[in-house]
C-alpha cells in the first residue's frame, strides 16, 4: 500500500480552537498529499465549526463537549463507515507539525506497524517542550507502560499518531475517554498490535489555552493509571 492508493483520513479533534483551526488545516493541506480531513468540533462555544467549514473540509459537530476521547472516537467511526485505510490523529491547536506526516504514515503504508506514535523525545529537535508537570506525567506513564507491558515508548501522551484499518475498527468500537492516549497504547499492545514511534516536531500553541491544568493533570494520572491496571487484568484478545 502506498500514499497514492491508500485512503487516508486526518482526524482533527477541536474544542474552542477558532484561533488555530484554519492554520492547522492549511498546514495539513500544505503537504500536498492525497488525504481527507475531518474536523470533530467537540461542542465548541466559539466559531470553530464555522471556521473549519469555511475551508471546505468535513466537519462533524458534536451536540455537547464529549472530551478528547469521545471526539477522537467519533473520527474513528467516521473513518470506519467511509472505509479509510489509515486514520491519523492530529490536535486542532496547531502544535503538531504536519511536515511530520510522511514519517507518521510510512510505517503504516509499508505494513510495518498497526499504530505509529509521534514522539517529541526520540531525538533533540529544538521543538516546543511541555510544562514541568506534564513532563513528570509523561515519565510516569513511560515507566508504567514499560513495567506492565514491556513496551518501550518515549511519548505515551502524544496525540499525533497513525492507525491502520484494524486499529480503526478497534477504536471505532471502543476508545478511552479522558486523557486517552496512554490507555489507548495499552489497549493496542494487549491486542498484539505492532506499535512503533517516530520522531516529530511539536510547536508552541499560538492562540488560546490548553483545557488541561495542573490539578487536572494529577487527576488524570490517577484515573488513567487505574484504567490501565484494569486493562491488564481483563481477558486478553488478539487483533483481527
Describe this structure in words.
The protein is an alpha/beta fold and 240 residues long. It has one domain: Alpha-Beta Complex (Spore Coat Polysaccharide Biosynthesis Protein SpsA, Chain A). Helix content is 40%, strand content 15%. The chain contains eight helices and seven strands.
Structural Rg: 17 Å
Oligomer state equals single chain
- DSSP summary: helix tally: 8
CATH architectural designation? Alpha-Beta Complex
Keywords:
single chain, 240 residues, Spore Coat Polysaccharide Biosynthesis Protein SpsA, Chain A, 8 helices, 7 strands
Topology readout:
Layout (H helix, E strand, L loop, with lengths): L7 E7 L6 H9 L5 E7 L6 H6 L4 E4 L6 H14 L4 E4 L11 H9 L5 E5 L12 H18 L11 E3 L1 H9 L7 H10 L4 E5 L14 H20 L7
Parallel strand pairs: 1-2, 1-4, 2-3, 5-7
Antiparallel strand pairs: 4-6, 5-6
Task: Explain briefly what this protein structure is.
With 240 residues, this protein is α/β, with parallel strands linked by helices. It has helices at residues 21-29, 48-53, 68-81, 101-109, 132-149, 165-173, 181-190, 214-233; strands at residues 8-14, 35-41, 58-61, 86-89, 115-119, 161-163, 195-199.
